[in-house]
Design brief:
This protein is 43% helix and 18% strand. The chain has 282 residues and is α+β, with helices and mostly antiparallel strands. InterPro entries: DUF305_CopM-like (IPR005183), Ferritin-like (IPR012347).
């Protein structure tokens, strides 16, 4: 075997390992390029080069080249490990591109694991809901990574109090619309909604709008009615006292990952955006 074939084998194996790391994502739309996974593939490639050369040392005639391959593989291993653990090259956008497939793995394992204990099932369902929400939010932030934000809403400093005080407070910084369960929209708008916004195709809508413009969202355990224009393919804006939801179709930006974005705003100062799917004609 020539040295050229050896390096081709290592390079091919490294690329294959990089691709294989995405096979445990829940859905193809969750596949994003990840610097961290690239470094992990390089780490495994360097390790493979050292192991294979160790076993095949006698098959290659140039001792100096063989030693150089061993040293080079060790250097690639060390450098890749440092890059993985230091995250020194990972920016905010790169971080989110890496986290989306990571969250997708949590969705897949939580949904498909053979769970019989209702306590564990409840925990798994909460993980699924949280991961899907965060994936949709990260998609939105990736699309708006050129926007500079000086500050965001933050929870007030905790104050001494009782359990009753704690239960009566709402953490606005962590507040977000929950998916509507089947039948919930009917009680407010008389049906499931002619247009709905979903964070993912598998999750329930976080906004449902009737043909007349009446809308509903599920916020902190309350079905909140909203009012606005009759919905259409381009989206629209619906409001309630203290809150608003705006949906905008992505137009030419739409792809298989998402076709619309929703921005949820509270007058208190909280603003959260999600990328997902705006479906009319339900």
């Amino acid at each position: 075997m020539t040295y050229g074939r050896f390096f081709a084998m290592i390079a091919t194996s490294t690329l294959v390992m990089f691709v294989l790391m995405y096979l445990n994502t829940y859905a193809w739309e969750h596949v994003f390029f990840s610097e961290t996974r690239t470094y992990m593939a390089m780490l495994m490639g360097g390790t493979m080069a050292v192991i294979m050369m160790g076993f095949m040392f006698a098959m290659y005639p140039k001792r100096g080249a063989n030693v150089a391959i061993l040293v080079g593989g060790a250097i690639v291993f060390g450098l890749s490990l440092w890059l993985v653990r230091s995250q020194i090259t990972v920016s905010g956008t790169s971080y989110m591109r890496a986290m989306i497939p990571h969250h997708s793995i949590a969705v897949m394992t939580s949904e498909r694991a053979n769970i019989t204990d209702p306590r564990v099932r409840k925990l798994a369902d909460e993980i699924i809901a949280a991961q899907r929400r965060e994936i949709a939010e990260m998609r939105y932030l990736i699309a708006h990574d050129d926007e500079q934000v000086e500050e965001i809403y933050e929870s007030p400093i905790p104050m001494p109090g009782t359990v009753e005080d704690a239960l009566s407070r709402v953490d606005i910084a962590g507040l977000d619309p929950a998916p509507l369960q089947p039948g919930e929209a009917d009680t407010i708008i008389g049906g499931p909604g002619s247009c709905v916004f979903q964070r993912s195709p598998e999750s329930g809508p976080i906004l449902a709008v009737s043909t007349t413009g009446s809308a509903v969202m599920h916020l902190n355990g309350v079905l909140v009615p909203l009012e606005g224009p009759a919905p259409g393919p381009a989206g629209g804006a619906w409001e309630a006292e203290g809150a608003a939801m705006r949906v905008a179709a992505l137009g030419d930006e739409a792809d298989w990952r998402s076709d619309a974005e929703l921005v949820f705003q509270l007058e208190e100062g909280l603003t959260v955006g999600y990328r997902g799917f705006w479906n009319c004609g339900a």
